[in-house]
Write a structure and sequence with these properties.
The protein is α/β, with parallel strands linked by helices. The protein has helices at 65-73, 101-118, 131-142, 168-177, 193-200, 204-207, 228-237, 257-269; strands at 2-4, 7-18, 24-31, 37-43, 50-55, 79-84, 123-129, 149-153, 179-182, 189-192, 214-220, 241-245. Helices cover 31% and strands 27% of the residues. Helix 2 crosses helix 3.
């Protein structure tokens, strides 16, 4: 185990996969002090001029199609890329009891320290999808960050209200057990009272710190999860450039949309 800057980087579970052009993907774990391990994937040259921290969406993981696209495309353009699994997501050993906004923000701090160590010459940038954009907004508001550029894809700006309308079964389980299980193809997620409370305590619509950050949002006009109108109101309130994908769904999976996401992100980061 190697310790750098107060963060432990574990050798177990670590592997390197050779890619074309001499770029190698590394996988392993970052340990938050006195806490759980954070699974990560990292790709790019050590002397990269920019490094992007990618934060996945809710009930997703660092293996999502968007993360995979960034891992494939950005290193060839001189970027380092670091993605990680939030608690109770993907390969994270932490269960739903550890899933709250505070821990997600603390994970971002540990990942940013790791990124700075592994790409020492790089300007750090952020790419957040949906819930990951919400966490990135909270992180930028609460923490002293190294980076000043952030790209928000299908940002869950109203995440604080996302679980307001529970069905009868979820309400009963929450009342009886203090949690309910949200079934998902990637990994079932335990939704606890403390997680729901942490969402209510962190609402970027009210307390986002715009400061001098360089920001851009991209959102589909037909987003079925996070209403496009919510994105428009948020962008107008905080003077953030909003790119609209006409007919775009929440995943921005319609033809041409993933390529638009990549183009707009690259333009912002450069």
């Amino acid at each position: 185990m190697e310790r750098k800057g107060g963060v432990c980087y574990h050798g177990y579970g670590f592997k390197t996969e050779k890619r074309s052009g001499g770029i190698a993907m590394r996988k392993g774990y970052i340990r938050r002090n006195d806490s759980y391990d954070i699974p990560y994937s990292c790709e790019g040259y050590e002397d990269a001029g920019k490094a992007v921290i990618v934060v996945h969406g809710f009930a997703s993981s660092k293996e999502s199609p968007t993360v995979e696209m960034l891992m494939r495309k950005l290193p060839a353009k001189g970027f380092g890329v670091v993605a990680f699994d939030l608690p109770a997501h993907g390969d994270s050993p932490a269960d739903g009891e550890m899933l709250n906004v505070e821990n997600c923000v603390a994970d971002m701090k540990a990942v940013e320290d790791f990124t700075a160590e592994n790409f020492p010459k790089a300007e750090i940038c952020y790419f957040g999808s949906s819930f990951g954009a919400y966490i990135t907004m909270t992180y930028l508001t609460e923490r002293r960050t190294r980076g000043e550029r952030a790209f928000f894809r299908s940002a869950a700006v109203n995440m604080s209200d996302y679980f307001d309308e529970l069905n009868d079964t979820e309400k009963k389980e929450l009342s009886d057990n203090g949690y309910f299980m949200l079934e998902d193809d990637v990994r079932p997620v335990k939704i606890t009272e403390s997680f729901l409370r942490s969402l209510k305590e962190n609402d970027p619509r009210e307390d986002f710190a715009r400061r001098g950050l360089t920001l851009r949002m991209i959102h589909g006009s037909c987003d079925e999860d996070i209403a496009y109108d919510e994105a428009v109101k948020f962008a107008e309130k905080y003077d953030i450039e909003l790119v609209t994908v006409e007919g775009g769904d929440h995943r921005l999976s319609i033809p041409g949309a993933p390529e638009r996401v990549l183009t707009e992100a690259l333009d912002l980061f450069k």
